[in-house]
Amino acid sequence: MAGVRVLPASPNWYSSRCSDASSDGRLFGFAARHRVCLLDVSAAAPTFYGELVGHTERISGFAFCRCPGQSGLCASSSDDGSVRIWDAEALAPVAEYGLHQNAISALHWSPLVKDLIVSGDEKGIIVCYWHNRSDSQQFFPEPRTIFCLTCSPHHENLVAIGYKDGMVVIIDISRKREVLHRLRGHDDEIHCLAWCPVPGEERLPAWQDELQVPSEEGKFPNGELTQDTATKKGCYLASGSKDQTIRIWSCNRGRSVMTLKLPPTKRRGGAVDPAVKERIWLTVHWPSGRSTEIVSSSFGGELLLWDLTQPGKRKWTLLGSSEGQNHSRIVFNLSSVKCQDKELLFSISMDRDVKCWDLSALDCSWTMPSLGGFVYSLAFSPVDTGCLAIGVGDSMIRVWNTLSMNNIYDVKTFWQSIKSKVTALSWHPTKEGCLAFGTDDGKVGIFDTICSSAKNKPPQISSTYHKKTVYTLAWGPPTPPLSSGEEGEQPSVTLYSCAGEGIVFQHNPWNLNGEANDINKVIRDTNSIKHKLPARTEISWKPDGKLLALGNEDGSIEIFQTPNLKLLCTIQQHHKLINAIRWHHEHGSQPELSYLIASGSINATIYVHNLKSVVESTSESPLTITEPFRTLAGHTAKITSLSWSPHHEGRLVSACYDGTAQVWDVMKEEPLCNYRGHQGRLLSVQWSPVDPDSVYTGADDFSVHKWYISKQEHTWPPQGKKSIELEKKRSMQPKVKTKKKKKHIGKSPAKQDLSDAMNGDESVKEMLLEENGVSDHEGEKEAQEAEMPDKVSVTVSKDTSSSAYDHSSFSLPKPVVTEKATPVRKDPPKEKPTSDASLKKRKPRSLLPFSTFMDHRSKDELHADCLRLAACLKTKDNNEDVSPDLEDRIHLGLFTDRASLHKMIDVEGKHHLENGHPELFQQLMLWKGDMKGVLQAAAERGELTDQLVAISPMVGYQAWVWTVEAFAKQLCFQEQYVKAATHLLSIHKVYEAVELLKVNNFYREAIVIAKARLRPEDPILKDLYNTWAALLEKDGHYSMAAKCYLGASSPYDAVKVLAKKGDVTSLRTAAELALVSGEEELSANLSFRCAQDLLLSRNWVGAQEVLQQHKTLFGQRLVFSLNELLCKCLSERNPFDRKSPVPPCYHSWELNRDVSFFDMVLEVWQNALGMDTTQQATGAREQLRSIEHPPSTSNTHPKQVLFHISHDLTLAALSSHTATWDEAVKSILGAVTRSYDAGNFTLMQEICSIILPEGCDNLRHKLDSTNSQSMDACRSLEGFVAYGLLYDLWWNPPKDSFILQKPVLEPVQCPSEQTALEKSYISSHCSPEETPDRTAAEMDENHCTTTEICRCETESDSTTRSLYLEDSQSKLNGCKVLLSEEIAALQNTQRDIAEVQQILADMIRQHQQQRNNLQESTNGSTQESNLQQSSETESDKLCPDSSQLTCKDEVKEPITLPELTKQLLQAKQKLAEFPDNLKVFPFPDVLECCLVLLHAGSRCPPQLRQQASDLLRKHGNAGIYEKAGRRFLTF
Predict the structure, then answer these.
(1) What does the buried/exposed string (b/e) look like for 12-36 if buried means 16 or more CB atoms within 10 Å of the residue's CB?
(2) Pick from 1377, 1091, 1379: which is nearest to 1257 by CA?
């Protein structure tokens, strides 16, 4: 990781010791999720050293070894129960053990025993491990949750342990289960323990014993102390607790000697609300050598230095004298180290900052910011150069001033009003400090980052929210309706946002409170589009604001022109969701490069398209682009971000899910370097705007890296095993265990950061689940939420206990219950196993239990009831009120008037409700006639049933309707949506029922109801089909989605979704469906795509079947048939080539082998394809001429090259058929040069021999000699034919002719001068021991052997030899066309230009390297000497090592830039003097042909040999030709 600047992942929270510093003061490490981050702190500013990677779950403890000579060793513990030992300097694991069965909560490396590591887990188990001898011992002093532990620095066997309930225990590990002291005093969690660095317990004047008179319980904390207790000398121990106190303990006496209460310090930046319980983590640290001073944390992030000798209450001093030095949130860990003459203190906090303090000055030395979430977005300000905005998943934005000289980590943080993961950022193009952001919950806002009060100023938030995650933000020119205003009334640029629901909004930055506009409406109106628009996933404006690119979910990219967003073209290259689109910058020396657009998708391939021809096109209808300008292949996972270099032309960097960033040379389609420093998947990338050599990347490992291109050792992305290793690193991400959520209350708060709230849409859930940091605002609710499960459990238990009917309130005698249960026992035997629970449920069968109970009292009470009833009835006869007399005898209402009966029913009903039997209460109310009240009460309690709904019509129609609606709502809460819809249908609410089913994804049922109950033309039916289709399409059910689109009368969308899968059967079905639906153009495009896929599998029969359905593809049918015949000829001519794994599927055409290839093709066209008339041929030729294929390169697939060649040869065959030979020769030349450009020399020879078996003479006679262009093309074609013949004569002489040994023994070109074909020939024809450039001694020896054999030859052999020489010379005479004086001069001039341009490029690269060295060097004179040395080295490299004399002659004085510029200008002027007809068509290298002729030796005619020597002498001044031709010209 040398030379990499990193913003690391945030330290873990709620751990007693998850950070530590090495004893030599060089390294400081802290746990960050499941890794350990190491910083080099030996200098004035911290630097990133590396990471320790190996744990699979959250790290809970980390500690360095304190023994001399082992300062690089460290240990870490994890929630997975394992402890790992590391070599921090080498970043390598040393050992691992997993003796714990539970999550480890505390860890410490003994400061006295060099190989002892002590760890404790949540169940209270202590494990001591001696790693040098692999020995271990376990202790279980208390069955409590361990929060912290620390080993004594004075006695190797003492360990202090702090528990969750506030107890502190000191044990002696030399004697198992030996507890020395149980220290009781705290009443809440022990957060930290610290031993006094100085042994002894000398009494200090200001200290006071808190327990002068011991109580009965505390007299001997651990019983009688024996004389061999290992604490005779004693030592003080400090403890910090959640109860806001620090206690100093005496180990000799086992009691507290001092208590320090945290002062109510006022948090900077605002007062603390006294009504809110402050969240606190109290960590303590006892600096080395200071027995009377302790450093502790406080409420709001302040650090306090306590002077224990100070009298009075105020014993503390605040660290950090100036504003902003302190932490803003609670501090978790403190660790110190001696560095030279200073003692440095390191602190980690909830505010995600790592700080270093100078304890002598009590000031903060430096601050290292960190990140608590995925780095979703990076953006450099176009105005404030070097200002990098970082969007992080911890709901905060960082703005990093990367050019700051005083502080390399000058970072500002913005969190106000965000409250969700920041997924997109974009700076205003002209307004300084104006930063737009988008979040995971669909929010879009703008921050002012440079305002003086910006730190506390909330952002402007758009009133229009997206429904899902915001993917991209972009500033661009206003489009309608915003562009319709007058000048000055509208902003110059507006903000565009694209989100997960597939919509792009245009926000007015002057009025964010206004409603944003959906640009799809403008696109529909401008382009008259009626079919469904694709879901948008990416947006990018061309820097000049004239073109807008929209990436879509189906993989297409649409280009629109401002201001009305007219559709110019659609790029159909990707077939998966578009993730990134970037336009090339406009400030280069080549303006045409500004039309380059790079795009990446879920597929691993990056495509670059050149839209210059599209923009300049005058076509009214939008074009479709299916061929890329450049293809960048190498990544193995989806592309997440792209960035063009602002310093170079055609230089691109890509970020990928394979865990690497790749720099590309786009024009050459070559990789330049690959960065693999991240430990996770890359999500964002930006090229530095000020340094051409540096790139910034962000990943899901919670970090941002700045790395240098020149320092990377890899060129390609990882493949094979390396890719698997990176995948293993990503698989070690911590996994959220949802099953453990209930245990958070009984566990350490350290687990609370795993329960991060999951916001946002489902497409990013796989990333959001892996973020373990709690956002600053969400974390404050944890303390309140953690208590809720206890309350819920109490409520449930109450309901459970009262669920059975209980007679205790009436003091029901037991015998009565027994009598009621007796009949149950008399039931048949099969019902005897009835459980007690079922018996209890059968007890409250009576609807009137209270009345029944009152009638089963004693005889005296029953007699008293009779008397009371008689008195009441008597008063009733006298028309007096009887109610007061029966207040205590409600059950007598059964025998009196109706009012009394109602009172009795009310009492009985209340009793049923209290005992959990609402159905009995409802029956009583039905008897009473109060059904309306029953329905209302049941609806409010959510206890409506089918029976209540069935009897609700007795109350009335309105009551019935109201009851059904309430029951439907209740069923929805119970997730019984289909039943709820059925009830809504019963009251004729069809639309509501359909909407209910639709909202809850019951589309099939909703459609059945809609089609059965609504009119066929009702728009809701079409909406149902479209919505269901979109959902099915998202889930990959394309066939079902197509049927939905067809049901919605949208065949176009059905075709698009069927073609989305991209396989042969899907494309064929989609094409047929488009043809049936009348979309002929779309059907033709899909059929052509299908035919191309069939061609790749060598199925020409299937391809013709697909193409023959469309008349417009007749030209392509001709191309495919010629391709089939060409492939058949090539396979027949080379039967020994490697066979394809897929057997070919040819047509059974009758072929006439006696005629030329073109005549054979024309016969097939006429007989099999029905091309009878010249008019058909002319139409097909015009159709094919409108299709242009990109030039071939060495990276082009061979099958694609062969298909493009077939296209050119088809044009040639059609031209020959119509007797337009001028066009035919150009097409043949195009086919030959395409194979030559692709680097396939053998294919070029085969095509020449198949198409022109007799050469070009017959073709030349058919041309119009007055047409100079066709004659030039013919000359070029003759050159390539002769070029192939020349190499064929040189490398493939007759094997039975012995005379071949002489030319073979001629000197061969050295490997650096050979063509690709020559290299491959030599490697295949030479044995491993032989090399082409043999020494002179070997050649002489072979020559002698040849001479001896030749002497033994007969005269007939001599005759054969002379005949072969004559034949070779006659054939070589045909190569005169290659020795063109004017073409050699033209090529020489082009080489001069290329050579000067290469020197210029080398100078620029050397200057860049020198500037980088100058920044790293501090001595100017040394740099000057290095510069001189490097220039000498460069000049030395031009000379071969073999001949020193030649080297001295060739050394030239360094050329200055003006001289080079002058040479370049002269060469370009010379190039302009050549006729244009020489530059139009390509031609083989004339000097290369000269060298081959000279190597042919005696087979070359003397006149031709002399001509070749003259050309080589005149134009062979280039280094490679001069060296290769030296032996032929020095005679």
Answers:
(1) bbbbbbbbbbbbebbbbbbbbbbbb
(2) 1377
Torsion of CA 299, 300, 304, 308, to 10 degrees: -10
Amino acid letter for position 1043? K
Q: Model confidence over 604-645: pLDDT tens digits?
A: 999 999 999 999 888 888 999 999 999 999 999 999 999 999
β-strand partners of 258 = 248
Cα separations in angstroms, 612 against 122, 595, 639, 1192: 66, 5, 25, 20
Q: 3-state SS of 1223-1272? A: HHHHHHHHHHHHHHHCCCHHHHHHHHHHHCCCCCHHHHHCCCCCCHHHHH
* 1286 neighbors 1378 (Cβ within 8 angstroms): yes
Q: Is the pLDDT assigned to residue 212 strictly greater than 70?
A: no
**Do residues 1234 and 1248 make contact, with C-beta atoms less than 8 angstroms apart?**
no
DSSP symbol at 714: B
Residue in 557, 558, 630, 568 with CA at minimum distance from that of residue 593: 630
For the sheet containing 411-414, what is the strand order? 375-380, 387-392, 397-401, 411-414
Please tell me the predicted confidence (pLDDT) of residue 1433.
43
Q: How high is the pLDDT of residue 727?
A: 60
Rounded CA gap, 1438 and 1112, in Å?
58
Mean pLDDT, range 1163-1191, rounded to an integer:
85
Which pLDDT band, with edges at 50, 70 and 90, does 726 fall under? low
Q: Which range is least confidently modeled, 320-334, 532-546, 1250-1264, 1418-1432?
A: 1418-1432
> Taking the CA of residue 1221 as centre, how many other CA atoms within 13 Å lie in the half-sphere pointing to its CB?
12
Q: Which residues contact 63 (CB under 8 A, 6 or more apart)?
A: 17, 20, 74, 75, 107, 108, 109, 117
In three state form, how does the secondary structure of 324-335 look?
CCCCCCCEEEEE
Average per-residue pLDDT for the chain: 79
Distance of CA 585 to the CA centre of its chain: 25
Query: Which of 115-124, 318-327, 878-887, 1105-1114 has the highest average model confidence (pLDDT)?
Result: 115-124
Contact 174, 157 (CB under 8 A): yes
Q: Which of 344, 205, 232, 230 is nearest to 288 (CA)?
A: 344
**DSSP class per residue in 833-861:** T--HHHHHHHGGG-S-HHHHHHTTS-HHH
* C-beta of residue 1150 within 8 angstroms of C-beta of residue 1103: no
Dist. CA 438–CA 1468, nearest whole Å: 51
Average pLDDT on 21-26 reads 92
Nearest to 261 by CA among 301, 196, 312: 312
What phi and psi values does residue 1130 have, to the nearest 5 degrees?
Answer: -65, -40
pTM exceeds cut of 0.85: no
For 1203, residues 6+ apart whose C-beta sits below 8 A from its C-beta are: 1092, 1095, 1119, 1123
The better pLDDT of the pair 83, 855 is held by 83
Cα–Cα distance for residue pair 424/436, rounded to 1 Å: 8
Altogether, the residues listed in the chain come to a count of: 1531
DSSP strand pairing (694-699 vs 682-687) = antiparallel
Tokens of 360: 């002598």
**Count of alpha carbons within 13 Å of 1301, Cβ hemisphere only?**
14
To the nearest 10 degrees (0 to 180), the angle between helices 977-986 and 990-999 is 170
Beta bridge partners of 1427: none
**CB-CB contact of 870 with 853 (8 Å):** no
For 881-898, how does the pLDDT look when each residue is reduced to its tens digit (9 = 90+)?
Answer: 544 556 677 778 788 888
CA distance 561 to 1248: 46
Q: How far is CA 652 from the centre of its chain?
A: 18
Q: Are 915 and 806 in contact (CB under 8 A)?
A: yes
Contacts of 18 (CB under 8 A, 6+ apart): 11, 12, 30, 31, 59, 60, 61, 62, 332, 333, 348
